[in-house]
Task: inverse folding
């Protein structure tokens, strides 16, 4: 079987989408399928570029290339899921959130309003025609149903390097690895450190557009001895940082899925997340595999201090988190079987 994975990629940026597609491609190849990922460059502004890319993908036919027929197209991303193919399977990462859950009609300028109408119409007319519809999480499925009236099935997948995570004896720091951007809300953790009473430090890993701003907040709050921005880290460094932390903090706003959640569980570490964080809530049991706090600094600080005062409890919660992960059948074999209807 010849399988295509149409995708978009922002040059020089490799985030969760890149590793998801890589993982799917490798999983399909390991089962003996012929697989090709076909990617076009993408950027999130201006709106005119996005609108043009919608038209590009709607005009592409991936059924055959130079007389070679393709059997299946697995589509995951906007706007690549508009591509024409006789046999498409949808495994949706997320839609263009700027015109859905992040859209504010009162504040939106004309270009975004026009894009909102175009995308909503295309999604609502094209996606229902795909016979098999999966998403990466219940949160993404709920959005698809809410905004477009389309039913879908959540299908979980493991994070990149699943077998490399391990648990070591914890040191007195909490770990937050993620891109430095507004929706990830690292600022909330930084502000929480003003209220943390225990001698715990916060280690924030990742790169992104908010690095200078977050550094400014740390300096302004006199938290340089308590919060460290360490930038991007290698995969090996990431495994060690997970293994040695007391706990992982991941408090994004309405996350689609959240690899950090699964990576914490695989490292046998309790996760502190927030009640409005979306995807992580599908995995974390409050008081069991972690804590679900209200989304404000004082609430995060309270949970951090609680874990420091009860380090044995933190270890027990971490073990429970790993057990919980194992029970959910999160595997590439399961993903391949479901997508191919095996």
Result:
């Amino acid at each position: 079987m010849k399988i295509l994975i149409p995708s978009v990629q922002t040059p020089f940026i490799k985030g969760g989408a890149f590793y998801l597609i890589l993982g799917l491609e490798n999983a399909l190849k390991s089962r003996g399928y012929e697989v090709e990922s076909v990617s076009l460059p993408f950027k999130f502004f201006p709106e005119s570029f996005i609108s043009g890319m919608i038209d590009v993908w709607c005009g592409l036919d991936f059924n055959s290339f130079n007389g070679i027929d393709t059997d299946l197209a697995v589509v995951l991303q906007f706007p690549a899921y508009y591509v024409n193919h006789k046999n498409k399977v949808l495994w949706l990462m997320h839609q263009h959130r700027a015109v859905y859950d992040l859209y504010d009609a009162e504040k939106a300028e004309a270009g975004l309003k026009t894009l909102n109408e175009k995308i909503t119409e295309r999604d609502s007319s094209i996606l229902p025609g795909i016979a098999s519809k999966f998403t990466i999480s219940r949160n993404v499925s709920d959005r698809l149903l809410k905004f477009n009236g389309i039913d879908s099935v959540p299908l979980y997948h493991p994070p990149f390097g699943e077998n490399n995570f391990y648990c070591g004896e914890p040191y007195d720091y909490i770990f937050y690895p993620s891109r430095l951007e507004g929706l990830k809300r690292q600022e909330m953790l930084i502000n929480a450190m003003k209220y943390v009473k225990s001698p715990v430090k916060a280690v924030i890993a990742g790169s992104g557009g908010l690095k200078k701003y977050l550094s400014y907040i740390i300096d302004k709050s006199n938290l340089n001895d308590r919060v460290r921005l360490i930038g991007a880290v290698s995969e090996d460094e990431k495994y060690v940082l997970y293994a040695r932390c007391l706990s992982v903090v991941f408090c994004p706003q309405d996350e689609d899925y959240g690899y950090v959640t699964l990576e914490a569980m695989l490292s046998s570490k309790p996760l502190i997340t927030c009640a409005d964080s979306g995807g992580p809530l599908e995995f974390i049991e409050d008081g069991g595999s972690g804590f679900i706090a209200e989304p404000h600094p004082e609430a995060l600080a309270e949970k951090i201090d609680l874990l420091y005062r009860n380090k044995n409890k933190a270890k027990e919660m971490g073990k429970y988190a790993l057990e919980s992960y194992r029970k959910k059948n999160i595997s590439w074999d399961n993903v391949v079987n479901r997508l191919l209807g095996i």
The chain has two domains: 2-155, 162-327. The domain at 2-155 is CATH 3.40.50.2000 (Rossmann fold).
